[in-house]
């Protein structure tokens, strides 16, 4: 670690010694769109923001740090569950839901971040949105949503012009597309066309084909959804459909993104389908279930005693690996995880990354501090699956990675994206896209005369990267044939020299 970073870390470590777990109570936040200020009761610093102290296993300091980390894994959920703005938006969403086609209700409640409900808060305001049905062979149907940048260039948050790179999003097992509104909206605003789908057989509105496919339904749905996303006049899908937004899609630049089983599935598809240029995986769990439906060798890896999800390129052979991949993994499986008493293997989660690096394929593996398996699957009131900064960190790295991989034909843009990926401090490049549920500021709500105006999304601009990374599991990157490489992002010696990529 560089002398400057060591000094900075020492200052932060001094600050954390005075903090207690009581600091985790949600508090009002700063101005929306600005870098988050550490906040807590009576102006105390946020224990989940400052550097975690070093600790020896078996000591009281270790126990306190681990319990604090577990509490931080639910900090964001505590924010929005206590927020009158979230409660009002959710009630409005619940009332409007029955008129929406292809939507799911689980145990009487709708799902998804209510402050990202596309028809009300996003469509024709921050981007373009449409619900579509994708027909698949044997009378199956996939309920899907398309997101794209605004048509009016003067209103876009990003100056990119069409056609745009394309991104396919698939949810996790027993999941739904609506909890991933935040991912789809963020990417669309950043200059991508996004198709997000419900896999048939789950709780969503999709319909399973009358004849079961030979491959797992998640993979079958992803293949046909990709066909639809890239379809155009003269190149329809197998059922004769054409993407109504085909003119906006650059079929030469394609990515997949998935969470949990969706990450396993879309990462597999990215390696075997030559149309896909890169993959993004959120807490992939290959050691539990691989893309071909086989139970993995470690079924406890996604239980609260198994150390969280582990990645693996299985069932792919090394010679089948060809596609760059960003993986973002969590510290825990859920908030009920058994507190750790010993340090885990720092490479417990990055087997897929190391396999790609061994083939000299560009790869990045980010292990986020305190995160849970379903951090990016925003669902409904009462959930305890989100940190305060996790979603913003996911979006920061995802946008930078896709810009690097899909917009890097312009060298300076590639270097800029590389610098964001390898930065020591998060910049504010992705913060402008954060509009979802966060903390509540009563003064803002009172001033505007609107409870919804009191919502303050959490952002990461200005926060040190190493304090957002897991202190248990390794994070690293391998870019440009190893020209830009780091095997331990929390202990590097300064910013990577991305200019070498020119």
TrEMBL record:
Chain spans, region Disordered: 292-317
InterPro entries: AB_hydrolase_fold (IPR029058), Dienelactn_hydro (IPR002925), FrsA_esterase (IPR050261)
Residue span(s) of domain Dienelactone hydrolase: 160-282
GO MF assignments: hydrolase activity
Any Pfam family: DLH
PANTHER family, A to Z: DIENELACTONE HYDROLASE DOMAIN-CONTAINING PROTEIN, DIENELACTONE HYDROLASE DOMAIN-CONTAINING PROTEIN-RELATED
Annotated protein name in UniProt: Dienelactone hydrolase domain-containing protein
Organism field: Cryptosporangium aurantiacum
High-level lineage: Bacteria, Bacillati, Actinomycetota, Actinomycetes, Cryptosporangiales
